[in-house]
Amino acid sequence: MKRETVNKAVLLLLVLSISAVFLAMIRNFLMAIFMAGLFSALVHPVYRWLVRLLHGRENLASGITVTGIIVLILVPLSILIGIVVTQAISVGQSVTPWIHSFIHEPSVVSDYLKKLPFYEQALPYRDFIIHKAGQLVGTVSSFLIESLSSATKLTVDALFGTIIMLYVMFYFLTMGRKLLEKILYYLPLEDKDEQLLLNRFTSVAGATIKSTLIIGMLQGLICGLGFSFAHIKAPVFWGSVMAVMSIIPAVGTAIIWGPALLILAMQGDWHGTLILAVVCGAIAGNLDNLLRPRLVGKDTEMHDLFVLFGTLGGISMFGIQGIIVGPIIAALFITIWEIYGNSFHRYLPSVGPGLTGSGKHNKNKETPP
Prior knowledge:
Elements: H1 2-25, H2 30-53, H3 58-104, H4 106-114, H5 119-122, H6 126-186, H7 191-229, H8 235-245, H9 254-266, H10 270-300, H11 304-318, H12 322-343, H13 353-356, H14 360-364
Helix pairs in contact: 2-3, 2-6, 3-4, 3-6, 3-8, 4-6, 7-8, 7-10, 7-12, 8-9, 9-10, 10-11, 11-12
């Protein structure tokens, strides 16, 4: 008996150790593998339809599915990125002289301040404002230059990650079900609990991707139109940037349209200022708060607070991918506690009537929730 216990302990130690080393070895590819599994689950109905249409040719169906993703999503996205890069170069060429004049000629700032309606009240603080404005513009210009180099590196990493993801997706579509069954077999949980975790994972992942795409496209489109109506150059570029910025909760697109609104106000363009305030601030700015909790929470039965903190915590821990990973972890957190409550309901103490307001909860404690 002791020998069997030792053998199992050693085996368990080897399993954990080698698994940890393997995961550490492929850690740079884990997110690409995760996204491949996620998107494979989302497009699996299309893949199964193609398998039936092609009389069971799974490899061909998987290849067509992956090719469809490339043609329908990645190619249009590449064209949009090309337009954005072209307009970004145009914006950089037009903004650079303005930044130099702003930094090296303080009188330019003073001319802008004179156009503000509260110039008389701000006059005693003019030198301080000019100094701080010059520092701010210099910081922003440095940030933009650094961001450009970072964006180039991120683009290369994203391209490599996308290739890995598509390659893994091809095999996940054909053998994903067998792999999933094997994982569930090694997971020592009841079948109903495993199905609950799996269903919650897929529902949250689908809802998060759906909400991110819908809100990003809507905010980018609306803000891009606002920039166009305000006669700001390169509205496609700025709209695309704001579509990406929309993933940041609370701030989002205001990172872009806020400074633009301030610049228009300093230039005395009150027509453009009003357009940005209404279109970008009042309309697009409230879409995230209005739609995201409902799109994610409605499909996953999660409270708005879990959606919010799951998104913020995911971004802080995983970066951009955290907007998808964060809500998934939050949903699994809720689900695992539900499973815990069901499994240990006989051992959990009753909640007193002083908290519940009645004795009904004591009766419910005797049966699984």
